[in-house]
């Protein structure tokens, strides 16, 4: 799905939401027709051992029904649930993406990068400092603990801050 979404964004400048469900599914099927045989060829060259006569696509009607049924059963057993956790979110795709779909780049410092969905480059590699107030700080004790991060948005999920036990500022 993400491959097709990125392709649509690059080639036509549209998202799956702008395209609509049916048109997006048609694009997925088009991609499958273009790339499916090549993927099978690559698997064969890698030496994959399987019954090629039983190969199927996850969006085939029979498979799609099976996936829905499995999802419902897992949900009923409490094995699929909603949770308040940080996920990789693509602002351009308006969807959560897996770790493997995240494009990782090493930065040597402050860097401007083009991000899909943004007209102007976005600044990365910046260390942001902010302070958490300390509860019960007495006279002569620091009133806050300063934290530095490159991912400021994660601070909303913070539940605690650890400091080095020998740091004299927090004795």
UniProtKB/TrEMBL annotation:
Transmembrane segments: none annotated. Residues 1-107 form the Aminoacyl-tRNA synthetase class Ia domain. Pfam families: tRNA-synt_1 (PF00133). One of its GO terms (molecular function) is ATP binding. One of its GO terms (biological process) is valyl-tRNA aminoacylation. The keyword Lipoprotein does not apply. Keywords: Aminoacyl-tRNA synthetase, ATP-binding, Ligase, Nucleotide-binding, Protein biosynthesis. InterPro entries: aa-tRNA-synth_Ia (IPR002300), Rossmann-like_a/b/a_fold (IPR014729), Val/Leu/Ile-tRNA-synth_edit (IPR009008), Valyl-tRNA_ligase (IPR002303). One of its GO terms (cellular component) is cytosol. Its EC number is 6.1.1.9. Belongs to the class-I aminoacyl-tRNA synthetase family. This is valine--tRNA ligase. It comes from bird metagenome.
